Amino acid sequence: MGSMLTRDYDTFAEEAKKICPNRVFTDYLRRYAYGIDASCYSYLPKVVVKPNNEAEVVELVLLANRCGTPVTFRAAGSSLSGQASSEDVLIVANDGFKYAHVLENGNAIRLSCGVIGSDANEKLAPYGKKIGPDPATITTALVGGIVNNNSSGMCCGTAQNSYKTIRSIRVVLADGTILDTSDRASVERFLTEKKHLVDQLVSLRKDIMADSELVDLINRKFKIKNTTGYSLNSLVDFEDIVDIINHLFVGSEGTLGFVSEVTYNCVDDAKYKGCGLLFFGKLTDASKAVVALAGMSRDVVVAAEMMDYLSLKSVQQLDEVPDFVRGIPEGTSCILFQSESNDEATLDKNLAYIQETLKDIPTVIPSLYSKDAAEYDKWWVIRKGLLPIAAGLRKPGTTVITEDVCFKIEDFTSGIEMITELFHKYGFVDSGIIFGHALSGNVHFIITPNFNDKTEMDNFTGLVKEMAERVSAVEGSVKAEHGTGRMVAPFVEMEWGKKAYAVNRKIKDIFDPSGLLNPDVMITDDPDIYKKNLKAMSDIDPLFNMCMECGFCEKNCPSRNLTLTPRQRISLLREEQRLLKDGNTEMAEELRKGYEYYGVDTCAACSMCSQLCPLGIDTAQIALSMRKINAKGASLAHAIYNNFNATINAARVGVTLGGVAGKIATKTLLAKISEDAHDFTGLTPYMPTTMPKANTYKLRNKRRPDFHKNVVYFSTCANRAFRQNQGYDDTRSLQQVFESLCEKAGYNVIYPPHIENLCCGLSFENYEDIDRQALADLTAALTKASEGGIYPIVIDHSACFNHAFKHIKGLQILDISEFLYSILPDLEVTKCNESVLVHKQCKVKVLGKQKYIELLARACTDKVFNIKSFACDGFAGQKGFFTPELNKCATKDLAAEVKEYGCTLGVSSSSTCEIGLGENGGIPFVSIAYLLDRCSTAKRK
Predict the structure, then answer these.
(1) What is the dihedral of CA 130, 136, 138, 142, to 10 degrees?
(2) Is a pLDDT exceeding 90 seen at residue 900?
(3) Can you give the pLDDT at residue 666?
(4) CA spacing 20 to 30 A to 21: which of 233, 447, 591, 865?
(5) 3-class DSSP state for residue 7?
(6) Residues 6 or more apart whose Cβ sits within 8 Å of residue 509
(7) In the chain, pLDDT over 90 holds for what percent of residues?
């Protein structure tokens, strides 16, 4: 299919640049980076395009028709079976597709394909609702992928997946036609203009319904989870053409059209939940418990996850894991189940019934039951992170393969035994991991073969093929919820039989007769496609080698829509090593040079990626280490540090001159001039409109004989040089505000000796010797000021606090927000009417201290909102001046967020971040200290 396509990629790329300016990539670095996904496949697209809206997608599809270039639509790239891989044109529909609108008081929600599943649930939370699908990747997976894979997950089973909860879709067909099944006019137009397509579908349904044997097969196959092939049940379950199309596109994996929007009927998010964690000596005992749970009503138990011994062993290093799990006997397996209800008494009754039902199945450790979300959420972290965690423990050079099959519940125990037998037969018994959504009869397993070893390659192909044969033989699903993809496309006919497979091919032919959309996915003429283009995992630094490129990290990355994401940075390092190994030094050098900007210069080094990675991989370390290697001007850096006070004074003069210029030219004009100069030279700094003014306040200790509490205040170099950002009506320096708060709370303020010469070393982190010297000098000064650590030490910039906190031991070092929260009891706080947006600086989030600034804001006003549009603003110290595009990209949705919440003030604990936040958010961003000082007085005695 698709063999007649002309494949004129050059013309496509040139014309696509007119449709999507600056968003068409043909260079090797970005084609490779965007080509990687969470699957075990490695395909290099010829062209990558990032459309911003549906209209652009329509134009691209029409262009693809003219140029005969097959296209693949990509959402988050978290699919596991190769359905998002492409060697043709890859269309990445993510950032421009974020529309989300709650309907009917939470009973439905309309979502663009680029909305993250968990973000949709966040919008529905106030209504006590959620979307039905709940894949383990819901914090990463986009709606486009969830619908196109018919992803289910932990709790939704077959009752609340996309197929069961879809209300309408908006789709771009292979010829560029748009159909919105929620719009009567669109449907009527479609029925008229696409009568031939409609007639073919109606005829196909008629043929199926006339064949009782085929109808019976389809009904049986979809009683369990099944994503092998198309949703044939849509042609049996529905008669109305709109209902058929709605449901036929669920699980179609981008092979029938581009789903730009979907409307879901929402489900209840039960008020009360309870979970159980049960441990069994044998996997067969665990499977017996699963069968018992599966026999219960969904009103009693909504989920049961099974994990074998190697699964449990792989997660023993997680902090969330109960201590006793670290010493479980070999062979132990477990079940994690969940019950829920809107009535707590009913939940208690359910939990008691479950305990009673399972009491005769022997366990090796006392079972755990809990209704405490803080406790059972940790258990679910174990299960949800299992795939990437297990993948991270694989041997160097091996590739992660995750398979996903489903059995009828009466075959579940024998199915587990069959998979275990295959592990023994094909040599994966020591590394194969079995887990899955057991309540649905759905089993996942992981193997990690080395594809450089012919024996292991043969073992992999042998296992996959025999598994498909044996699962099909008992009417199981070769793919239950991960989608058909390339992994299972050759086995669709094996599972369904010739007659039903012919229906699958007919569906593809009706919607995509030219084979333009996602070739070799779902339908293929290549019986070996499942074992081609498998990822070869080149060895890199062990810190990053464990990455399986799942993409969990990407949501937090400030550069994700500018250059690269963390997993792309890691994958490019692997590719460079592969090229070098193959002797392709020219291409490896091209990647290395490009990496300087895409991988190093535009990495904020914020470590926010590590907060979402189940393995805690901190990709920031790549950029930090390379910056040290490439650092230039060491002699100048030494001169700056050795004359630090003069450097600070020069910075004050610089902004003072900016102020003089500002009297002649507007701040906006100066910003535009500096931006144009930066774009032209790449060297001159960008001057934001919110650039602060010079700080001339003299720092002197503030002591009163009646005060008996002391605090050491290390005001950082940025805050010593500059006053509060422009646009705020309080023109005092931060030091004055802090001193005011301390006076109200009864604290003496002590500045470290010779503070004018002190730096935490963060500004010199590329020069290790200067960094060490700065930390040593600071430690000595803080030790002296705090009288050996007796007094708390406050640092007024969170990035500097993080650096000092990590490297200076034996002293009580506090972020400014943490200290101010501690003195709240000493203040009389009167709430104001300010609507406040809280910025939680990335470096306090890394240390788990982000709660303090929000608590301070809530003490000052009832109208408090947290920034949700980014995890890091990308200002990253001097990068806001020398790589301003990073900050602008990260905060592009901030102004809309400010408008949505009606905020009038932003608070932060990073004066540099506040510059970019203020400029891009359109409201003043100031230190939280200003707000607290405005709302507080000394406590009456």
Answers:
(1) -120
(2) yes
(3) 45
(4) 591
(5) coil
(6) none
(7) 77
Q: Which of 89-98, 190-199, 356-365 has the lowest mean pLDDT?
A: 356-365
- The β-bridge partners of 24 are 49
Average pLDDT rounded to a whole number, residues 916-922: 95
CATH value at residue 281 = 3.40.462.10
Element (H, E) at 836: strand 832-838
How is residue 526 written in tokens?
């290549």
Q: Tell how far CA 704 is from the center of its chain.
A: 51
**Contact (Cβ atoms closer than 8 angstroms) between residue 758 and residue 735:** no
Task: Render 617-653 in DSSP notation, one character per residue.
Answer: --THHHHHHHHHHH---HHHHHHHHHTHHHHHHHHHH
- Tokens encoding 61: 């599809």
Q: Which residue has the tokens 């042998």?
A: 462
Give the pLDDT score at 657: 43
Radius of gyration of the CA atoms of the chain, in A = 30
Q: Which residue among 628, 660, 688 closes a domain?
A: 628
Residue among 642, 799, 821 at smallest CA distance from 719: 799
Assigned domain for 242 exists: no
Any domain includes 765: yes
Q: What is the pLDDT of residue 154?
A: 77
Q: Mean pLDDT over residues 279-285, rounded?
A: 88
Q: Classify strands 166-173 and 257-265 as parallel, antiparallel or unpaired.
A: antiparallel
Handedness of CA 657, 659, 664, 668 (dihedral sign): positive
* Better-scored residue on pLDDT, 774 or 691: 774
Helix 283-294 to helix 344-358 angle, to the nearest 10 degrees? 140
Residue at 292 is within a domain: yes
Query: Quick one: 446 and 560 in the same domain?
Result: no
Give the integer Cα–Cα distance in Å for 709 and 703.
10
Claim to verify: residue 338 and residue 430 sit in the same structural domain: yes
DSSP code of 501?
H
Helix, strand, coil shares, percent, the chain, to 5: 50, 15, 35
Distance CA 920, CA 890 (A): 10
Give Cα separations from 940 to 744, 747, 749, 826 (angstroms).
10, 15, 21, 9
Strands 442-447 and 401-406 come out as antiparallel
The verdict on 755 and 900 lying in the same domain is yes
Quote the tokens at residue 3. Answer: 């063999």
Least confident span in 265-269, 547-551, 661-665: 661-665
Sequence-ordered alpha helix ranges (H) in 169-303: 184-193, 195-209, 212-221, 234-237, 241-248, 283-294
Domain membership flag for residue 291: yes
What residues have CB less than 8 Å from 927, skipping those under 6 apart?
Answer: 724, 734, 737, 796, 816, 907, 908, 909, 911, 914
Query: Model confidence over 792-816: pLDDT tens digits?
Result: 999 999 999 999 999 999 999 999 9
Check residue 27 and give left, alpha or beta (phi > 0: left; psi -120 to 50: alpha): beta
For tokens 């969990």, name the residue: 552
CB-side exposure of 20: number of CA atoms within 13 Å? 26
Do 613 and 749 lie in a common domain? Answer: no
Across the range 583-603, mean pLDDT stands at 97
> Within its chain, how far is the Cα of 55 from the centroid?
26
Among 607, 628, 649, give the residue marking a domain's end. Answer: 628
Whether residue 468 is found in the same domain as residue 579:
no
- Residue 562 and residue 464 share a domain: no
| Whole-angstrom distance, CA of residue 857 vs CA of residue 558 | 25
CA pair distance 538, 542, nearest whole angstrom: 11
Asked which of 78-82, 138-142, 643-647, 683-687 is least confident by mean pLDDT, the reply is 683-687
**Is residue 470 located within the same domain as residue 544?**
no
- pLDDT over 70 percentage in the chain: 96
Whether residue 586 is found in the same domain as residue 732? no
Average pLDDT over residues 734-756: 97
Domain interval for residue 922? 709-938
* Domain count of the fold of the chain: 3
